[in-house]
Structure formats: C-alpha cells, structure tokens
Protein 1
Amino acid sequence: MKTIALINQKGGVGKTTTTINLGAGLAELGHEVLLIDLDPQAHLTYALGLPAHELDVTVYDLLKEETPLKEVIVERAENLRVIPSSLNLSGAEMALSSVAGREFLLKEALETLAHEPGYILIDCPPSLGLLTINALTAANEVYIPVQTEFLALQGMSSLIQTVEVIQKRLNRELALGGIIATRYDNRKTLNREVVEKIREYFGDKLFRTVIRDNVSLAEAPGHGQTIFEYRARSNGAKDFRAVCAEMVERAEK
Amino acid sequence: MKTIALINQKGGVGKTTTTINLGAGLAELGHEVLLIDLDPQAHLTYALGLPAHELDVTVYDLLKEETPLKEVIVERAENLRVIPSSLNLSGAEMALSSVAGREFLLKEALETLAHEPGYILIDCPPSLGLLTINALTAANEVYIPVQTEFLALQGMSSLIQTVEVIQKRLNRELALGGIIATRYDNRKTLNREVVEKIREYFGDKLFRTVIRDNVSLAEAPGHGQTIFEYRARSNGAKDFRAVCAEMVERAEK
Ligand SMILES: Nc1ncnc2c1ncn2[C@@H]1O[C@H](COP(=O)(O)OP(=O)(O)OP(=O)(O)O)[C@@H](O)[C@H]1O
Ligand SMILES: Nc1ncnc2c1ncn2[C@@H]1O[C@H](COP(=O)(O)OP(=O)(O)OP(=O)(O)O)[C@@H](O)[C@H]1O
Ligand SMILES: [Mg+2]
Ligand SMILES: [Mg+2]
C-alpha cells in the first residue's frame, strides 16, 4: 500500500485536481484507491459531487476519535472510496492543539482499515499546519503539484525543509515521491523556464509527464465529476492517464 | 484613509497579484499607499523584489510588539511603502494564540502610524486563521478576488459568513467593499457562467472591471516588479488601471 500526501502551501496549484484525477486514473487501471480530503474547504468532497455541508460524519470526526473509520468512508465509484471533509474541520487546529500526539491522529485512524487499498491519496490545504502534518506522518510519500509560474516556485525550498523536519522527527519512512508540473502551457516562455529550473534542482523527481492547462479540468468539478467521467478524451484525461502510468512505473522500480 | 483586506481562503485566486497591482496603480494616481504582507509565504515581499529571508525585521516583529512600526516599513517606490513578511510569520498562530486580544495586534500597531496614507492594502494567506482575522479587525473594507472557476465559487458563502462574524464581534465598521473577478478569459464559457452567477448573488458588489488572464501578470513577480514597471502597456496593466479608477469612483460615492 502506498500512502501519498499531495502538498504545497502555495494556493491554487492543482493539489485537489491532481488528487482526484490521479485517484480516478489509478481506479480505472484496477487499483483500489482511497482519497482523503484534509482541507476544511472540502473542495475534493464538493468536486466529487458529495454535499459536504450535509454530511453527518467527516474526517474531523475521525481525527477526534468519535467515529470509527468504516462509518466515515463513502463509496464514490468502482475502486474509488473517499473520506470526505467539511468546514467544521477548520476547528481542528485549535481543538486538537493540546492533544498529546496530535500529529499521529490520522496515521492511527488509518491503521484500523479492515482492508488495505493499493493507494491512499491525501489532499492537503494550502498551509503547513496541523492538518498537513497529520498527512505527512501518515504518508510514506509526498507528491508536490507545482504550477509553473514564479510565485509557485518561491515556496518550494521551505516546503522541502518541512518535509525533512517531519522525516527526522515524526516519520522516518517519508520520501519525496515526485513533483508534478500542472497548468502547463507550452506557448508560455514562463512555463518552459520554470519547468527547466525545477528539472535543474530536482532531476528525475520531476515527472516527465506535465499536466497541460485544460479547461475541462476546471469544468469537471462543477459537475461533481472526475475528468474521466466528464470528458474522457480531453487533454486533461490524457495527461492524468499518462501520469498514472508513470506513477505505477516509478512504484515498480 | 481606507484600510482594505484582500481575502479569500481559496488558494491561487490572485490575492497577492491584486494587492500589489492595485497598490501600485493607486500610487501611480498620486495616492499614498501602504502594502502589508500578512502571508508567511511572503509572496508579496518576494514579488516586489524584497529578499524576505534576509530581512532583519518583518510584520511578525510588529505583531509581537518587539519593533516600532517605523522600523518595519520599507520604501518601495514613490507613494508606495511596504511592511514585508517572512517565513517566521508561520509561527504567529501558535506563538500569539494565548495573548489576550490577539485579534487586535495589527490594528493597534497601525494606530501608531505617524502619517496616514490614503490607502492601506493587506495581502492575506489562503486561510481564515489568526492572521486573516487580524487583517479583518484592522480593515474597514474587504475585497474578495475570485478566480472565475467552480472551485473558487465554492468557498464564497463561508467567506461571507466569516466576515459577518467579525463585523458582529470584533469590528462593526467592516464592510464588503467589492468582489474582483481575476484570471478571466472571455473565450471560456466557464468563466462567463461564473461571473454571471456572482453578479446574480452579489449585484454591484462585483466590480464591472474584470482582470483578464494575462501572462505578464504571472511574469512580473519573477522580475520583482509591479505590472506597471514590467509591462506598462499589457492587458494586465490596463485592467489594473481600470480597477483603480473604479475603486476611486466607488470610494467617492
Ligand atoms: N491543468 C489544469 N488546467 C486548467 N485548470 C486547472 C488545472 N488544474 C487545476 N485547474 C483549476 O485551477 C484552480 C485551482 O486548482 P485546485 O483547486 O486543484 O488547486 P489547489 O492547489 O487544490 O488549491 P487550494 O490551494 O485552494 O487547495 C481550480 O479552479 C481548478 O479547476
Ligand atoms: N490575471 C492573471 N493572469 C495571469 N496570471 C495571473 C493572474 N493573476 C494571478 N496570476 C498568477 O496566478 C498565480 C496565483 O496568483 P496569486 O499568487 O496572486 O494568488 P493568491 O490568491 O495570492 O495565492 P495564495 O492563495 O497562494 O496566496 C500566480 O502565479 C500569479 O502570477
Ligand atoms: Mg485544494
Ligand atoms: Mg498570495
């Protein structure tokens, strides 16, 4: 089982879009996938057509140890299950700040899984607070979606530093799985330059496959669908299938 | 003096881009402007060419009441001053959580301004935590940059609710100044549909001027420049000049 945290404290770089469509792509290939929405905005939950504001139980109830895991998991499609979120989760940082071992709450909850899926993907909020730290202690790999623009490059070094601190203190297993370039437009010099810079710093950690800028990816959430359900022959669907194939290839190395 | 907080907990919608270029546009019109970077990512600071990681004092020292305001302010251009940020600010949430009246630290610091500028613009992180609350208690208006895509629309209702809670409990003066549509591409149906939806809900709170998607706006930060310094005749520069004109017109009503 691979548990992957999708992180980047820079906002709007494609964390949620990548978590959903990587998950859906792996499910299409026959892998069992569990998606976890760890963002109080509950964008992954809404984007998959789940009414976050009407749900009785969410990931917050799991972290507070009030509800067993099997009651929180939602079947979303074949091979694709979800642990949804809601706005209540924004209270977690304060409510859990005095709990001993508060960084391990998610990891412990996932240990109660009756049946291990092939992949667990965790969508994180755009910050490096308690929720993201819970994802990093539960995960064995980190994927960093990066929008190929200057501001998105800015925070990479502090992001890598945070991962290293978590590796040293909370989770020795944690490794940088890969960096995925998102919203890439080959016509923009800026995008080509930033991708080159990332390749210089991070070498083959950068996925060969880039996710092109594709309006279908921005439209699909409004229909509560994955890219494969919404427009299976779009560039977005093609790129995410290619990233999944590269991901499985990397896992087998 | 108008103090405006640029907020939206949705990431990557153009908060920083809007704060910088609205500020620079108002300065170009002859108004005195103070920009405040309240994001630990320090994107506004970096995007204006200031080396956040090398600065001795930042907004964090101001909030901790360790440094007087006049020592933290940096002159960036004519009529344009900045209170920079740095990564240290990410410690504020924990460090200040037990300080009585922690929500009013920024407001109190700004009361020590020797000379009041015409406008103060505060760039906020993509969350509704203590830093954003400090901005909302110091401000008399809120501007909400919105990327015209589905996910960006999702969080609007919870954002408005947060503003209302702050109005009731911490700052009776706070008003919704306006909503600014960003990264708008007239060719995309999705963008047109979302703008229509916002106009339905919020009426003339939505600025008539939209900020078009324009690669110069994404390139300027890499050069440490405002859009007016980088490409004064680009669509980005034109749109921000138009937003400034509309802003001044609204202020005079
Ligand atoms: N490759 C792409 N092409 C076009 N639009 C995209 C692409 N990837 C993401 N988007 C759109 O860009 C916006 C930001 O993406 P997304 O919400 O996935 O980012 P995020 O990093 O999860 O944001 P946050 O920091 O708020 O959690 C969304 O409106 C999404 O639909
Ligand atoms: N109108 C525009 N046209 C093209 N690119 C834009 C535009 N507005 C913003 N951008 C780019 O989009 C990205 C996100 O913008 P920005 O960083 O200003 O958003 P933000 O809301 O401040 O993000 P965060 O939530 O991380 O603070 C940046 O790379 C920026 O350069
Ligand atoms: Mg997200
Ligand atoms: Mg910003």
Protein 2
Amino acid sequence: APRVIALMNQKGGVGKTTTTVNLAAALARQGQRTLVIDLDPQAHATLHLGVDPASLETSAYDVILSPDAEITGAIRKIRENLWVLPAETDLAAIENELQTAQDRNQRLTNAIKVVSNRFDAVLLDCPPALGLLTLNALASADEVLIPMQAHFLALQGVSKLLETVTLVRQSLNNDLSVLGVVLCMHEKQTTLSQEVVADLEEFFASASGTEVAWSNARVLSPPIRRNIKLAECPSFGQTIFEYAPTAAGAQDYTDLALSLLGKAKAE
Amino acid sequence: APRVIALMNQKGGVGKTTTTVNLAAALARQGQRTLVIDLDPQAHATLHLGVDPASLETSAYDVILSPDAEITGAIRKIRENLWVLPAETDLAAIENELQTAQDRNQRLTNAIKVVSNRFDAVLLDCPPALGLLTLNALASADEVLIPMQAHFLALQGVSKLLETVTLVRQSLNNDLSVLGVVLCMHEKQTTLSQEVVADLEEFFASASGTEVAWSNARVLSPPIRRNIKLAECPSFGQTIFEYAPTAAGAQDYTDLALSLLGKAKAE
Ligand SMILES: Nc1ncnc2c1ncn2[C@@H]1O[C@H](COP(=O)(O)OP(=O)(O)OP(=O)(O)O)[C@@H](O)[C@H]1O
Ligand SMILES: Nc1ncnc2c1ncn2[C@@H]1O[C@H](COP(=O)(O)OP(=O)(O)OP(=O)(O)O)[C@@H](O)[C@H]1O
Ligand SMILES: [Mg+2]
Ligand SMILES: [Mg+2]
C-alpha cells in the first residue's frame, strides 16, 4: 500500500505545488514509484510537470466525478518512477456537481484504491481552500504535510487547518495524521523566521503524547530555502532536478525526501 | 469624493494586505485622509493595524449585512489621517447570508456613500477569492490595484482576474478601471522577474487605446522589494513606518503613494 500524503494549506501561495512537484520528483529519484494527483483547478502542478491542462482527455475531474471512472487511463507517466493524475479547470465546478452525492467526500479514496498497488507514494496537491477537493484529499490520505512560510500571518491559519484535519479524522478517516510542517521560501537568518519556527516547535512538542491528529507532528527538516530557481522551473515545465540539479532547491527537496524515507541527509 | 481603490487578486499570499496597509499609511502620511476597509474574514489588515478582530462590536460584516448599518460607528481612527473599518471572522458567512438579497453586490457601495465626504482615499483589502466580498469591492471601487509577484505561476491568474473586473464593469460599475499591477516581494535582479515584468508591460501596452478595463493600466513604480521588515511589522500591529521607517519597504511604499498622487519620488 502506498503512502498517501496530502500537501495542504488553505492559505494561498505558501509552497504547496512547489513542494508536491519537487518532493515527488525527489522521491522518484530515490526509487519510489510516485504518483502526483493535482487537485487544484488552477492546475499548477500539472503545468509545473510540463503537461498542458487544456489538452487532456481525462483528468482528476473525470475521476472524481464518475464513480467507475477509469483512473488508470487518466494517469500518465511523465518521468522515471513518476506519474501524474493531472487537473484541469473543470475541477472548479466539482463542488457544485457533487453537492448532493452521498459519497462526495470519498470519491478520491475509492479511485486511489484502484491503482494503489502500483505506487509507493501518492502526493496530493491541494487547492488553497478547505472545500470538497481538500476534503477528498484528507479523506484518502494517511498523512498531512503543511507547507508554510515562517511568517506571522502564516501562523494565523494553522488552527483552522488543524480543525479541519480533526473533523475529517473523526468523521471520514480515522488513520489521518499530521506528519508536520514544511518550511517554504525559508530565510533562516531572520529573527522573524526563528521566532515562528520556535513557536511551531513548541506547539508540536506540547501535543506530543496526546490524542490529537498532530501528536507526532514536527517541523520537518530541512527547511526549503528561498531559491529563485524553484520559481523559474515551472515556466519550463520542469522539476528543479531537470532545471538546476545543483541548486539549493534541489538539495533541500532531496534532503526532505530522504528525511521522509527515514534516511540520513545526502552528503 | 474619495478615490476608492480595490486591492485585489484571487491568488493567495501575493501582498494584498501588506500593500493595503502600508500604502494607506503612506497616503495618510502625505496628508490624505485614508480609510482602510478590511474585507477578508482572515482579518489580516485588521491585525496588521493593531486592532483585535475578536474584540469588535461592529465590523465590515455588520455594515454589509445591514442596509441601514451604522458604518460611522464601525469605523475607527487608528493613526493620524488613517481610519479602519475592521473585519472579523463572521465575514466568512456573508456569502451564505446574502445569497438571496437582490442588492447583495452593492451593499458596500451604499455604505461607502454614507461616509465618502470624510475621506480622500478608501482602500479595500480583498480576500483571495472572486466571491461576494470581492464583487462588492469591485462594485464600489473607482480603480483596481493588482498586487502580485513577478513569477510564472502568478501570471496564470491574471486573465481570470481581468475577466471578473470586466464583468463587474459591464453589469455593476461602469466607472471601474484597472490602475495597474503592484509588484510585491520583488527581486529585480532575477531573469525571471525581468521576463515576467516585460510580459506584463507588453500586455498593458497592447491594451492602450482600446475599450478594455485595463486600457490605461501599467506596471506601477516602484516595485516593492522583498524586505523582511514588511513581514515582521504585522506581528507588532504596526505599519512599516512605525516599525522600521528607514527600511526599504518604507521607502518603496512611500514612493508608490507619491506615484499614485502623481508626484515625483521622494529624495
Ligand atoms: N523555495 C522557494 N523559493 C522561491 N520561490 C518559491 C519557493 N517555493 C515556491 N516559490 C514560488 O512562490 C510562488 C508560490 O508557490 P506555490 O505555487 O508552490 O504555492 P501554492 O501554495 O501551491 O499556491 P496556491 O495556493 O496558489 O496553490 C510560486 O511562484 C513559486 O514558484
Ligand atoms: N515585500 C515583502 N517582503 C517580505 N515579505 C512580504 C512582502 N510583502 C508581503 N510579505 C509577506 O508575505 C506574506 C503574504 O503577504 P500578504 O499577507 O500581504 O498577502 P495577501 O495577498 O494579502 O495574502 P492573502 O491572500 O492570504 O490575503 C505575509 O507573511 C507578508 O508579511
Ligand atoms: Mg498550488
Ligand atoms: Mg490578505
């Protein structure tokens, strides 16, 4: 069974897509058969990976909409060890279209089950919202990664996020747990980031040993440093490993992948 | 009549709040009687200005909800020449509560009319969405400012944004026009930002002389440089001018304000 990880944060522009794409690529390079599922109608992960959302015959939209959908046909191999279930703008309509469906929060779970034996890791790129698409992601995930910036206003959204994770854990998915926070666009040397990180670490430490969904969560290491290469490669439809393999961004996502696999950092 | 400016972008984390607060403060320091209206249920502009959203008796929520609402009572003076109509989390419910109201897109326009003679500038901080709150902002605005980062994925959202502005212009507010783009968190020396800026400038240049809402729009000057001080001051409930008056962020927002007032840059 694969490890299903939801990259979620209702706040926009925090690094969800950049992390989904480059962490998935890093895992693939470590030999993990990895599937990226793009759940954002903006289709940024799809674009980032060099797939044209306008050219798709089937996408995550069709898979979620149709209970017997052929997820197998919608998934495409895009790199060695890396597959994508792409998004398209129709996904924006899904909330309306599934309003009355009894199992509307479980559509993705059922679809993933069909292909789970083909993958070691499934990464779900969530939109910046706590709506139907994110709920489907949380319902099908084992773990939650929270990409965020170590900024003051970023902290404001965390409690609402954990509230939603808790709700899903209670009602839809008892196995859901928060793996931790991925610090994105990180500037280690600033007082602000040090204070925010200290805040987060203290928050997780005090949850340790309790019953909450984040009782085993931590601030993940390493933080992902601000690196313009990470902002450039989407425009070429490339991952950081193709665009700038020796850049700080490539190093950080490799080390993050190793950390998730329980391995030591690269040399 | 005041100049009513909507700071909008459906993309999250692009600098709307930072720009609304610090541009308003800069205008106030230039002698402009300035009102900030926080239209985001996250209430970040409210927090940024040192107002506790949880302590409010009346807020933007009450004003929009009640046609005869006492906007006068909800507005508070917070600095010399600077007032705020604060937000609170109840604002999240407003879309549902006004679903069937005929004039639901015009609530804010009517409220602003009540106080317009007291102000020279009214700045509207929009949430990262194109829903009811943003529509109210566009219906009551004269001009639209689009804060954004000069990144590839940031360009993807611009056409949808302009589509919405066009719709409002046609159906609700014929005087609505796009003033331009405010480049936030700008890194001038990178190839990426130079290419994105060139793209934007070409796009606006080709619209010049046409009938579209952005026919007089431009990339505003100066860009707002990435400056950690701008991310720190919200945690103290301060504007950049109180927190770090000699920082790059203070200089850039002052120059932006001067540019909006048609004046030359500061020395
Ligand atoms: N470490 C980094 N260094 C530099 N730029 C980065 C980094 N991480 C992300 N970016 C850039 O920041 C912007 C926002 O990142 P991204 O799109 O990954 O966030 P997101 O949370 O997926 O946004 P959304 O909520 O819109 O889906 C993008 O332009 C991206 O290229
Ligand atoms: N020029 C800058 N330099 C450094 N940090 C900045 C700058 N502008 C904004 N920030 C920081 O970036 C983050 C996002 O900015 P901001 O909250 O203004 O965006 P927003 O568009 O209002 O977000 P939202 O969509 O959530 O309302 C905040 O943590 C803010 O402090
Ligand atoms: Mg994204
Ligand atoms: Mg904001």
Protein 3
Amino acid sequence: FQFNLMVIGRSGLGKSTLINTLFASNLMQSSARTSPEQPLPQTMEIEPKSCLIEENNVRLELTCIDTPGFGDVLDNEKCWDPIIKYIKDQHSTYLRSELTAKRPLFTPDTRVHACLYFIQPTGKGLRSLDILVLRKLCEVVNVIPVIGKADALTSDEKRALKTRIREELNFHRLRCYPYDLETHDEDDRKSNALIRDMLPFAVVGSTKEYTVDGTTFLGRKTRWGTLNIEDPEHSEFIYLRDFLTRTHLQDLIDTTSQIHYETFRCRQLNA
Amino acid sequence: FQFNLMVIGRSGLGKSTLINTLFASNLMQSSARTSPEQPLPQTMEIEPKSCLIEENNVRLELTCIDTPGFGDVLDNEKCWDPIIKYIKDQHSTYLRSELTAKRPLFTPDTRVHACLYFIQPTGKGLRSLDILVLRKLCEVVNVIPVIGKADALTSDEKRALKTRIREELNFHRLRCYPYDLETHDEDDRKSNALIRDMLPFAVVGSTKEYTVDGTTFLGRKTRWGTLNIEDPEHSEFIYLRDFLTRTHLQDLIDTTSQIHYETFRCRQLNA
Ligand SMILES: Nc1nc2c(ncn2[C@@H]2O[C@H](COP(=O)(O)OP(=O)(O)O)[C@@H](O)[C@H]2O)c(=O)[nH]1
Ligand SMILES: Nc1nc2c(ncn2[C@@H]2O[C@H](COP(=O)(O)OP(=O)(O)O)[C@@H](O)[C@H]2O)c(=O)[nH]1
C-alpha cells in the first residue's frame, strides 16, 4: 500500500502538528526558523518525506509532501506553479514507466492521492490567494479543505465559517473531493453528500498529552480549560482521521488513478 | 483632547473587535464581506472614523484609522506606500496651518499619535511583510506591536512568541515606542524598560458578555471553558487599555509632536 498526501497552507497553521498527530509519528518537522539571524523564506520548496506506518494490520507506506514558504513571500503571483508542476511530474513519471516495453512487475506510485488545503481560522472565509490556488489544484488532485487551529473559533463562529466556505467553494465552482460519477448509484451519491456537509474539517492537532480527572488524552492546555482533540465537540480531528486512514483511503487512491491520472494521460497521448 | 489611533494588520485578526472593546463603542465595523458574490479587496483603503468618548471626566475626541485590505492582496510589494503617505500628509497639513499668517486659535490635529500593528498568533514570529512595513512605520509614527487573538496560544507558546518577537525587533533594528531621549533621567529609562518588556501586548478582545458563577464579564465561550478578557492570566487586554487610555496617552501625543512632527518639519523646511 502506497499513500501520498500533500499538505498546503501558510506557515503556522498547525500543519506539521496535525500530520504528526494523524499518523502518530514524527514525520514532519515544523518549518520554524529558530533564530532571527536565519533568512526568511524567499521562495517555496517542495519536500517529500516518507515513513512506514502499521494501521490495523495494514502496512502503509506514507509519503507526506510539505510546501514550506507557501503564501509567505511578498509577491504571491503564480506561487502555485511549482505545486501543479510537481503533481503533473508524478503523473508523467508513472506514464513513462507504464509505456516502457520492459515494465517492472511493481511500478512505484508517487502520484499525489490527496491534498489537504489549510484555511486560516480568521472567520473571514477564503482569501484571494486561496481561491486562485484551489482553482488550479481542483483540476489535478483530490483536494480536501481543512480549517487549521479551529480552537480559535467558538461553536457559532465555527458553524458560520464552515457554511461560508462551502458557499464560496460553490460560488467559485471549485470541485473538491468527492466527485459524483455517472457510475455512482443512489447510495454512493448519498454518502458523498454526507461528506460534503462535513467539509471543511475544522481540526485541532496536538502531540502533547494531558491527564484530567484520571483520563489521559492528546490536547491543548489553556488558562481557562483543557481541550481534548479526540472529543468531537472540541475538534473534528477524529472525523478527518477516519476519513483519511479508513473509510476513504482506497477511494482516494482509486480516484487519483481513474480520474486525475486518466485525464492527464489522455491529454498527453493526444497532444 | 484629540487622539488619533491607526490600526494595521491582515483582516480577521480581531482588530475591529479589540478597538470596540478598548473604547466601549461601536466605532469600527468589521470589514467582512457578507456574501461570496462581493468582490475580494484588490487594493487597500484608508478609512478614518471618529467618535467622542468620556473616560474619567475627560472628553476625548477619538479617531480610529482602519486599513481594510492590508496584506490581503496577491502582490504586496509597496503596499505600505499609501499608509506612509497618509501619515506624512497629516504632518504637512498641520505644518501648513502652522505657517499661515492668520492662524486659527485652535488648529485641528489629525496627526497619527499611535499605530497598533497586529501580528498573527501563529507562533512563527514576524513575516517578511511585517518586517518591511514596520521598518517604514517606525520612522514616522509611534508603533505599538500587538499579538491579535492571543487565545490561540498556550501560556508557554505566548511567552516564547513574545520573546521571539522582541529578539526580531532588535535584530532588524526596528525602534518601536517608547524612545529613550537624552533629556530622560534614570526613572524615565526604567519605566521605558518596563514597557519594552511587556511588548508585544498579547490581547484577546470581545464585545459579548457571559455570566459564570454569578460574575458577568466580557469574554469568549469555548467548548472547554470560558475566557475572561479582563483576567490578566487570560489576556493582556487591561494592560493595553491602561497603557493607551491612561498612563501613556499624553506621552504618545507629545512624542508625536516633539519627535515625529519636528523631524518632518525640519526636513520640509530644509528641503
Ligand atoms: N491554537 C492551536 N495551536 C496549534 C495547533 N496545532 C499546532 N499549534 C501550535 O502552532 C504552532 C505552529 O504549528 P506547526 O505545526 O509548526 O505549524 P506549520 O508551520 O503549519 O507546520 C506550534 O507552536 C503549535 O504548538 C492547534 O490546533 N491550535
Ligand atoms: N479567537 C479569537 N477570535 C476573535 C477575537 N477577537 C475577535 N475574534 C473573532 O474573529 C472574527 C474577526 O474579527 P474582526 O474584529 O472582524 O477582525 P478584523 O478583520 O481584524 O477587524 C470575529 O468572528 C470575532 O468574533 C479574539 O481575541 N480571539
């Protein structure tokens, strides 16, 4: 099993913390500069990092693709070009190995199966940069919108922001995962509608443990109370975890190869 | 008494909420677009809004200058130019009325006495845009750095971020308010050093009231506890309020006219 997950969003939105919490590993190091002398990021890089995970007796080779510096430079015109190029390059590597005469038995799959796009919890919806980048991403990869650091929102603000973002995704015709196909029956359509109602996932991540009233859990300790990331009232973390590692893992891989890769392959062979 | 306060920072950092809480009024309307159809801000505007405030038997004519759209457009090169131009224009209006032969008894003062600069609570310190804008602002106005929405930080993260920002302000030689003058004695220097140790103020604002255990207070209700903005453990709001409306109000006005305005005047008359 090979699963490749790309993570995109401004620095400081809790991306590395969330990935390390989701896959209970130390896969992503936070991209923080540790001292003022270090120069600020002038360009964006693309850094894949891999590790092996055992989840319910399934061996999963996970690769996380981080994009440090995204949206943090002064002029963000065309900052999405290197990301789209990376995704297309993986498709063309796969295509090349598919077309070679003497094909290896097992083709390594580096295609990006899902992309977590982090939205700021400011309560103001999508920014102009978000809309432009999402427009490009939705054409080439399965995009899953996520609100980072959702503990900065009260229950009402969270509900209002999720509705607002769903409206904006519809208005700008940004087609996120899951897709409705002609081959889908009534049940498939219903389960897709349920997922769409949960998007964007408002998550809180943490790698620190706290013990309150005898129960130990991962959370964040504030001066007015301690938050438990696995409590669905506090954070939609467990919904995102189940979605990514259990219920939709296989479908994300299949959709990538049946929809995104086939569209790419058609265009290349017709060109 | 005339006091002009400029507020700069990306949208959604809680600027309007904080100003309305500081001055117990509805002075600033949040710049949120209410529906997806409304266009995203393409440029930054500068909007002064005035109101009359009674604080401890002193009538204060307060003007708040908002900068909706700051840092939210795609290409932020030179986005600070309109702000610096606005500040200098107020100085030159004041200079012109000072130089006219028949001077009115009372010259209206629209010079900017203080500028609250909002930093994002991401834990990553100053971004490249922050450093460039602060460099320009510190030359023409009293700048007071503030961390917005500080409830997104735990106590340790808050302490680490404040230290980190102070280090970066020193490293980039950004001179915020208060200034050390030759005329100052030992006591003045000590009181300035105390203020510098409190900068940046990590504040949480709110205009909603909650009642917990019989006491009513302004706060934010989360699923794991209710925060009281006037509790110094939860938010440095009361320190910023005392600093701005009581202890340093007069000094901010004096420093503007003795340092920033005189520097401007000298340059203009020598030019
Ligand atoms: N309030 C809040 N802070 C978080 C959360 N997740 C991480 N953090 C803190 O935010 C800071 C930056 O997180 P990091 O994961 O490095 O962000 P990244 O730059 O997006 O990878 C760290 O100090 C974390 O402790 C969260 O869900 N809520
Ligand atoms: N977590 C948190 N949210 C806040 C705070 N102050 C305001 N908000 C919320 O953030 C949203 C945007 O605030 P607003 O004042 O309009 O931000 P502005 O665009 O910077 O003026 C609103 O939904 C507020 O309820 C705060 O201190 N902490």
